[in-house]
């Protein structure tokens, strides 16, 4: 039996809502004034995305977790054989890395065709309630099926959140403990497209986070 995207998206959104009461909506970050199309879960997890009006390979993203745990997003929905981004705090810094795995296990770092993360300092921090990574992801929308397509109006993304810290938090290649919460959700990339994208992307400077992984 074949399922169309118009069938899968409502189902994914319904399952996400039923299991965790997460929501997908426009969110404007008060620290950066960037408006994202964002998924927010009661665990404390958030992933947001902003795209140019004519999408290419880049996007501006927001990844939020809490305490010492790690949070991740699958840009292709599934955990297996998709490009993943994981982030977590190490002291007052936020560490991030690209990951990819052929099986359900702690995903190793991915080495790809040149995708990079550059943080936006105003939206990258830790505090008493949560941590936040706001970033420019360049070359991150791929054509090999490991991410959503640049011309997609809608698709399904995956998320994962763990309360436990990575084995060696200061190391971007650290082994990740198993996530305790995870799921999928449908998202509108059409709604994430904005004429302000160039302004958002220009905020990326990376001066406060020296340990970003670059493929």
Automatic annotation (TrEMBL):
Keyword annotations from UniProtKB, A to Z: Signal
Signal peptide coordinates: 1-20
Domain Cellobiose dehydrogenase-like cytochrome: 27-198
InterPro entries, alphabetized: Cellobiose_DH-like_cyt (IPR015920), GMC_Oxidoreductase_CD (IPR053208)
The keyword Glycoprotein is assigned to this record: no
Gene3D superfamilies the UniProt entry points to: Cellobiose dehydrogenase, cytochrome domain (2.60.40.1210)
Residues passing through the membrane, by range: none
Name of the molecule in the record: Cellobiose dehydrogenase-like cytochrome domain-containing protein
Organism: Phialocephala subalpina
